[in-house]
Amino acid sequence: MKKIESVRNINTDRISSIIMLIIVGTFASQLIGRTFTQYGILFPKVILTILVALSIGLLIKSWVAPELREISKEENKIKIVVGIVIMIIWIWTISLLGFLTSSIIWFAVLGFYISERKNLSSFLFIISAVFCMTILFWFIFHKILLVPFPRGIFV
Amino acid sequence: MGGKNHPFSHREGKMDGNIYITALTNLLNIKILILIFLGAAGGMVAGALPGITATMSVALLIPFTFTMDPIAGLVTLGAIYCGAIYGGCFSAILINTPGTPSSIGTCFDGFPMAKQGRAEEAIAGATTASVVGGIFGTFVLLFLSPFLADQALKFGPPEYFWLGIFGLTIIASLTAKSIIKGLIGGMFGVLLSTIGIAPIGGDVRFSFGQPALQGGVSLIPALIGFFCIPEVLNMIGTAHKITQRIPLSKKRKGVFLSTAAKVLKMPVTLLRSMIIGVIVGIIPGAGGNIANLVAYNETVRASKHPEKFGTGMLEGVVSTESANNAEVEGSLVPLLTLGIPGAPPAAVLFGALMLHGLRPGPELFAVHTTFVYTFIISLFFANIMMLFIGIFGGRMMARAISATPVKLLAPFIVFLCIIGSYAIRNQMLDVVTMFGLGLAGYGLKKLGFHPGPIVLGIILGPIIEEGFVQSLLIGKAWTIPWTIFFVNPISVILIILCILSASWPFVSPKIEKIRDNLAKARRMKRSES
Hints:
The complex is a heterodimer.
Chain A: E1 9-11, H1 12-29, H2 38-64, E2 68-70, H3 77-97, H4 99-114, H5 120-144
Antiparallel strand pairs in A: 1-2
Helix pairs in contact in A: 1-2, 3-4, 4-5
Chain B: H1 7-11, H2 19-27, H3 30-48, H4 54-61, H5 70-95, H6 104-115, H7 119-152, H8 157-168, H9 170-174, H10 179-193, E1 196-197, E2 204-205, H11 219-237, H12 255-264, H13 267-282, H14 288-302, H15 314-338, H16 344-355, H17 362-367, H18 369-403, H19 406-425, H20 428-446, H21 451-475, H22 484-487, H23 489-528
Antiparallel strand pairs in B: 1-2
Helix pairs in contact in B: 2-18, 3-5, 3-18, 4-5, 4-16, 5-6, 5-7, 5-15, 5-16, 5-18, 6-7, 6-15, 7-12, 7-13, 7-15, 7-18, 8-21, 8-23, 10-21, 11-19, 11-20, 11-21, 13-14, 13-15, 14-15, 19-20
């Protein structure tokens, strides 16, 4: 396993302020060309104005007294990205395969992926643990608490 | 249950000196005691599962009480309510995910304690604080109900507005390192809370063309996403470094007793947090989610070492847990005396009372006196049983989570997150929202944003907006509408509290400096003399 130990400092204040200004812009664009009642839109406008002022304040601070943070330290970014992709597929396949089936598959895949030892015994351990946990919780929520989990091709 | 063993039907309406004895006699019934035990244990398990809130726990279990008599049914639901609020501390401490919104503050110091191998100590502290808080709240409910309920009714829209703003000032304590980022996070949370239909006017705002967003951002998926997903991603990214997320607690004899003794040696923290919990509980609309954060904020402000909070301070766990359990009984004060629920789970209890043919309000005390006092005193029993359940169950849970390797724990948390966010409204959109906000939370965390202010903004946003807009509408009758925010005595008190709370992180270091200088000067004088 390749260890990522590099440490890089970035100006988080500047990045944060720019991201916030983009978010505010995106929200503000929703107000253009639409009519609202006076009291329906007053409060969001106040909040957007405050957010713009604070973001500009943070942008100015990023030059005057910037906060520098170590962005990567002892963290395996590839694992994080692959983990995110597995979780996205997990959520996406719930409606296709059914809640229980997709949970058993992707729970096991994620567990096996982050496991250090990738051998048969580790695989069998993960599969058996995943099977027991998912079935137990599915039974509690679906059969006792009557939560109607999505069904797909399977359960 | 019925006939001779039906305490409600035989003893209602008697208000004399023996009312407490009669209520106790009703409770000292093996069937009732078993129901209280099962209710507290069941509530605790439900509360420990992220996404299953106290409100949901009580609501889900109401049907099981249909066939019981009113006392047995309501006593069980009361125990579930107490247990669920307490149970939230387990997941907050062990996996950094508040089981209920009432345990958000418990994550701040509880999880760092667990990471240091002090999970059992954190759970013991939370258990003791919860039990003490619950018993204190029950005393208040028993003796001060009518007076306190009257005071709570004096809160109008301007007072709610200032109460919300006061809640937001907590950000200053949560993010002392970068207050501007804390404020941006809080405002971002408030902005997220404005998505959906406006409370006044009915306009659809920021739906981005998605009909599903008209209902707004659901609190629980947001809460789970912001707190849980960043932690899972952190686990995945560092899985090659660590095999266990939480180190196994060292086997220490008497850890519960020694921690309980430590907690009881914090009477000021306990009392302050419990009073905050009761007051916030009594105010209709403000629940344990606000109580625990306000109590945490005040504990940090009052501490001589505020910088140590967030690193594993037992005092932080004690403040939040004593406040949220005292809030349970606080929320029952307006419910029982005025028929106005103080918090969402109390609103569900309102429904349960109605189902059993009991109308909450003054009539309840006048006509069904024995029932009311039996119910109130049952909360003592529920809290005491919580202590025993917590001692044994807490240790088991801590050991189980500690022994679980990261390769199982991380995907298991994702699995719980999906269940928790889906079960709220049975909508896949909530799961997507949870995950999307979780990813956003991870990115924001990397940029130095704390999830606390964002979640606080989402919780307080609707309270502030409603207070703000309703006040302005009422203020239309005034020459200058804005003055409505500043004229009522309660508003003035809240404004002063807001100013004090917001300015405290800036003022307290200066006060400390002056104190140090004075002490130095005194020492110099002494050495000279």
